[in-house]
Every structure is written in structure tokens, then in C-alpha cells.
Amino acid sequence: MEPTIRQALASDLPYAYDVCLRTAYLGKDGTSLFSDPWLVGQYYAAPYIARDPALCFVAEEDRVPKGYIVATDDTVGYGAWLESSWLPALRSRYPLALLEGPGAAALSDNERNLVRTLHGTHPNPNFADSPWAASHPAHLHIDLLPDLQGKGCGRLLMDRLFAALRERKCPGVHLGVDGKNLNAIGFYGKLGFEPLENAEWGLILGKRLD
User: For tag attachment on the chain, is the N or C end more exposed, with fewer CB atoms within 10 Å?
Assistant: First the structure.
């Protein structure tokens, strides 16, 4: 059966958590990097579906979701919602004390960094001052399991999201990509994303939609 693209539902959340974990290391399986298999999806997938499922889409094969794109059309507004409605519970569940407790030595660098991210400010306090913030207010995350890679699903997911963002009169979208993830950088370039800013960890890329 050919892969299909559809809007995300609340019932897709377990699959989104799984896909997020299994693509957490430069698009490859990150299972070995997280002692809590839910942690990475708690930040990079689930909150988008919970807040605005109309901007989230899944790619499924044989009626099983194997990829997704999740987004917001308003990074500042999303950050405010994240701070007030989503992160307080996660900060209690994953306190900074985890990084210093008896089990801290067993945590991977990825886990440590993500726990610190949960306790940071969202969005980055410098975001609104970026020269591209007004022209690229949306942001996204996209992940596909190997089963669906190379089948055009990534482009289909992007096209569905771009259409939804244009319906909302959103002028542009941005995303972050690890500088070591050359395959992803090449993929985004083919879709018209261009560099907006260099970061210590990689690149911020953007695409105008107007």
C-alpha cells in the first residue's frame, strides 16, 4: 500500500513519540541515547499535536504512522503556551536535580542537554530580535522512519504544511538543523530553504511562503 498523508490526531501520539525517538540521532535511531523513551517526544513532537493539530500531519503506511511533520505558525505565541501549559509538568517530572543525583552518571549527553532545554526560556529570548523573525514566524520539525525515507513522503508532508500555513497568511517558516546532518541540509535546500543564521550547533534555515 502506498504511503498516505493526513492530518494528525490525538490517537497518533504514541506513534509520534516512537518516531521521534527512533530518529533522534541525526535522523537515525536514538533509542540507546535515552533511558526514558518518552523524553525526546515530550518536547519535539507531542506539544505541537496537543496545541494545534491542524498544523501537524502524519505519513502512514498500511495504516501505521511512520513519520510526521509538526509545526506552529507563531513561534512567540507557541513559546508562551509552552511555558504556561506544557513545560511546568515536565519540569517537575524531569527536574534539574536529575543531572546531579545518584543516577546522573548514567545519563547520556543528549538526555542532559534535553533536560536543560526543558528548563530554558522558550523561544530563545533573542528570537524576537532576529532580523528574520517577522518574515519567518513559523517553525517545524519533521521525522520519518527509514521505511518511508526516499519515497517522497518528506516533500509531501512539507507541501501539506506549506499549504496550511499559507491559508493562515503566514509569511515564512524556519527550522534548526544539526550541522552534522548533511542529508537533512541537502533535503531542505531542495525545498527552497535558505540559511538564515549560523548557530553553535548548526544552522537555522528558512523559507518564504508569501
Answer: N
Q: How far apart are CA 51 and CA 72, in angstroms?
A: 9
| Residue type, position 57, single letter | F
Model pTM above 0.85: yes
Cell numbers at 30, concatenated: 536514538
Residue 46's nearest CA partner among 31, 56, 61 is 56
Question: What is the structure's pLDDT at 102?
Answer: 82
Three-class secondary structure of residue 207 per DSSP: strand
Burial class (CB in 10 A: 0-12, 13-18, 19+), 182: exposed
Q: Is residue 131 over pLDDT 80?
A: yes
| Residues 70/48, Cβ–Cβ less than 8 Å | yes
Q: Quote the mean pLDDT of the chain.
A: 95
* Closest to 147 measured CA to CA, from 24, 46, 59, 53: 59
- pLDDT for 13 beyond 80: yes
CB atoms within 10 A of CB 39: 23
DSSP 8-state code for residue 85: I
Q: Residue 43 and residue 64: Cα distance in Å, rounded?
A: 22
The model's confidence at residue 204, banded by pLDDT at 50, 70 and 90, is very high
Determine contact, residues 54/47, Cβ cutoff 8 Å. no
Cell of 208: 518564504
pLDDT given at position 103: 82
CA 180-40-138 angle, to 5 degrees, is: 70
